[in-house]
Model the fold of this input.
Amino acid sequence: MDGLIEEVAKLLANSKHAVVFTGAGISAESGIPTFRGQNGLWKRFDPEEVASIQGFMKNPKAFWNFARELILKTKAKPNAGHYAIAELEKIGIVKAVITQNIDMLHQKAGSSKVLELHGSLEFVDCLDCGKAYRWDDLIDKIERGEVSCDECGSPYLKPRIVFFGESLPKDVLSEAIEEAKKSDVFIVVGSSLQVYPAASIPFVAKESGAKLVIINVDPTDKDWLFDVVIYGKAGEILPKIVEKVKEYCHVK
Ligand code: APR
Ligand code: ZN
Done:
């Protein structure tokens, strides 16, 4: 494992444009359950019912129960993995974070260029009257299970996240593809790479000549694509990589 950590640290220290691509696994050590794997959310919830646009339009309450499970139960905070990535940006190595996560933990950890492919929970809109809410202002309604619009009473308060069946925000997706094309080191952290078009972005980096690294607890069916594969926890591995990078770059 140490040899692999050194190899990734050297790639980063010599890189010109490193990009990090994250999935639910980076937030697992913050207490937010992942979607797949042993106790993944999709074993306990039906994604069609709680995370598809058809399911939401049929029964928005199902999504809001799921959302309580997803974020509120943990009052999630960034973990060492998020902070390590933010530090790599601060020392000028990581130029962008592309994330599939909606939990805003990269920003809370200090990352500034974060491309949220699946949106985020930060804002919620009433689909009937257009009133906009901040997630934090809805927290006690979510906990009470009574999410409805103050203005018009509608139950259709929809967060600005991408539901299954919806397309990704075009500007964010094209910027993420641009970042992948410019990258010379592309690091995937905590993703099973099962959901498209997000899962096609590492291929774009590869085609553009980038060195690919994956840090994941479980093997994925795309590990063959990567130059370096490290099986383990992001919160343990990333800080070790950052320490080595700082040594190589003589950063305090
Ligand atoms: N450190 C690193 N990897 C981890 C950790 C950890 N502490 N814990 C879990 N993992 C790995 C798991 O092995 C798994 O392969 O993270 C991966 C998480 O995979 P998914 O749960 O499938 O999450 P993700 O790849 O982000 O899913 C993509 O699917 O349901 C949709 O919109 C949802 O954005 C999500 C998308
Ligand atoms: Zn309304």
